[in-house]
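#onboarding

Welcome to the new folks! Below is a worked example of what a typical request in this channel looks like: someone posts a single protein sequence, and someone else replies with the predicted structure as tokens. Don't worry about understanding the tokens yet, we'll cover that in week two.

Example request:
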Amino acid sequence: MVSKTDNPPRNDIDAAINHIACDISSGAAEILRRAGAVFTLLNFRASEDGGGDLEPAQQALLETCAALASAQSEMSPLLRLSSAALSAAQTATDAPDSWKRAEEAALNFIANAESAARDAALHAAALIQDNATVLTHSRSSTVFAALVEAKRAGRRFSIVATESRPMLEGRALAESVARHDIPVTLIADAAASLAMDQVDLVVVGADKITPRDLVNKIGTRMIALAARERGLPLYALCDSSKFICKDYLGSGIGHPNSAVELWPVAPRGVLVRNSCFEPTPISHFTGIVTEDGVLSSVDAARRAENASINNVLVSALGVLGEGIR
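Example response:
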């Protein structure tokens, strides 16, 4: 993953990045905080060793940023955080300043993303009216925050949550919602279309938004099509860190999770394909709710087009991608 250099020591840094790569249950907010801790660790280790020389320090930072961005290819905030950290480090004139600037940029990115997610949740809460039934899929921390905020505002409503197989994040969402005294019904993913007859509003999260597609948990497109058929409003909730101008690393769709999640011991001759993410055209959505309010699909596409990343990191990821292929 990250090359072993003497400036700073890499073993614990590699372990932290591998932990992020192997995490199949945490959302973007938690993943970002762990990524921030990697840059804090880098800066700490470098300060212990005197910081080193500028050129090898910036090479080590580039390798770390590329490894972090690749650790969760479907999460664009991780790519954008890595880009921000690398860009900040490139303005330094010595190695210690490189490590410091990378850490500061990463932590600032995380703080801004968390603040923006809270604002997006506030905007989304206003969409939930009294006596509404809201269907959601998977477990988005921003969606959950919006539901809690609507409850605090005194509105009475109920939730329909899908199981969200194969990892069943919907169960965790249903349990969390119930703890806030919000009525919730858990259904199988395949029952989502049938449930639309009793639903007033559909809200989901997002892991990535490109100028064309929104990438989210598998099943999102099916739900979007069912909502569209019924003429129901469908919103995706996220902060602007989810927007990216290009799908640099792919969505992870071509690299399925373990088949064991679907069938622990499949018989010979049975191919098990376990995709956990899928793209849905942003044109299918009534709006994308961000910290700036509700964006139309056209406005969302424009915002994604303007969300570019560091060119040096792009080049490094291109080389990495060729190696993977």
